UniProtKB/TrEMBL annotation:
<keyword id="KW-0158">Chromosome</keyword>
<dbReference type="GO" id="GO:0032991">
    <property type="term" value="C:protein-containing complex"/>
</dbReference>
<dbReference type="InterPro" id="IPR015661">
    <property type="entry name" value="Bub1/Mad3"/>
</dbReference>
<dbReference type="InterPro" id="IPR011009">
    <property type="entry name" value="Kinase-like_dom_sf"/>
</dbReference>
<feature type="binding site">
    <location>
        <position position="91"/>
    </location>
    <ligand>
        <name>ATP</name>
    </ligand>
</feature>
<dbReference type="GO" id="GO:0000776">
    <property type="term" value="C:kinetochore"/>
</dbReference>
<keyword id="KW-0547">Nucleotide-binding</keyword>
<keyword id="KW-0808">Transferase</keyword>
<protein>
    <submittedName>
        <fullName>Mitotic checkpoint serine/threonine-protein kinase BUB1</fullName>
    </submittedName>
</protein>
<comment type="similarity">
    <text>Belongs to the protein kinase superfamily.</text>
</comment>
<dbReference type="GO" id="GO:0004674">
    <property type="term" value="F:protein serine/threonine kinase activity"/>
</dbReference>
<keyword id="KW-0418">Kinase</keyword>
<keyword id="KW-0995">Kinetochore</keyword>
<dbReference type="InterPro" id="IPR000719">
    <property type="entry name" value="Prot_kinase_dom"/>
</dbReference>
<keyword id="KW-0067">ATP-binding</keyword>
<dbReference type="InterPro" id="IPR017441">
    <property type="entry name" value="Protein_kinase_ATP_BS"/>
</dbReference>
<dbReference type="GO" id="GO:0005634">
    <property type="term" value="C:nucleus"/>
</dbReference>
Length: 256
């Protein structure tokens, strides 16, 4: 009833937690999670701290560093104790099942050869108090980090040719995302990781899009559905959001 009552309107707020929870319940998402080998369901997620361990089934991860924090969570650098493999672990409180749902849907909708351009949950721990999502670690940080580092070291902006290449890669990423009927709605330089160095001998995408907490799955709504919600940061609001007009793809295109 929640879904039907909300989508019967000409436009709706896709960020509505009640709507998102109703969609996940209707899909039986939690029951599906319990079937996955890479997901562990617990009563409560244990506290995460630097120099402590995270236990996933029988596997231990050493927490080496806090690498980022925001209003809803923190990101840690962790190492698989038995092997020299590094991950980034995103801890969100309260738990964010919606982002985990979007990340798992991406694996079904994005062509395999392009999946490296999207955050992928290698493992996840889901509790009543928090979620932990294990993903690839970037040794270079975000696109914002890289741009700032270049300027701080050289006093110059990133070379124009490199800007063109990175802009093209971002366009390809968002094109594929939209072809998969998903909107990101939080596009900004610090939500693109730089995963490896740019080289003239490779056409591989070096960027990876992360942070899908605001994402919208268009397949859960009627075709041509319009939305009217707004993001919190004024700089990233498209004209439609600022003026209270309906939107679909406009926020992502504006932020690009």
């Amino acid at each position: 009833m929640v879904i039907e009552s909300k989508i019967s309107r000409s436009s709706l707020d896709p960020f509505d937690d009640q709507l998102r929870n109703a969609i996940l319940t209707n899909l039986g998402f939690v029951a599906d999670l319990e079937k996955l080998e890479t997901i562990v369901m617990v009563q409560n997620v244990a506290p995460v701290a630097v120099n402590q361990k995270i236990v996933f089934k029988d596997t231990h991860f050493n927490v080496s560093k806090l690498i980022g924090k925001g209003a809803y969570g923190r990101v840690y650098k962790v190492k698989l104790a038995e092997k020299d493999i590094t991950f980034a672990v995103k801890k969100e409180m309260p738990p964010n099942l919606w982002e985990l749902y979007i990340l798992l849907e991406l694996q079904k909708r994005i062509p395999e050869h392009l999946m490296s351009a999207f955050m992928t949950p290698e493992y996840a721990i889901v509790g009543n108090n928090a979620t932990l999502i294990f993903a690839s670690f970037s040794p270079y940080g975000t696109l914002l980090d890289v741009v700032n580092n270049v300027f701080n070291r050289t006093g110059k902006n990133v070379d124009e040719t490199v800007v063109f290449i990175l802009a093209f890669q971002m366009l390809v990423i968002i094109e594929q995302l939209h072809r998969g009927d998903i909107l990101h709605l939080d596009l900004k330089p610090d939500n693109f990781l730089v995963m490896k160095k740019l080289t003239k001998d490779s056409d591989d995408c070096i960027l990876q899009l992360i942070d899908f907490g605001n994402a919208v799955d268009l397949r859960r709504f009627p075709s041509k559905q319009k939305f009217n919600g707004t993001v919190e940061t004024d700089k990233f609001k498209c004209s439609e959001m600022k003026e209270g007009r309906p939107w679909v793809y406009q926020p992502d295109l504006y932020c690009l």
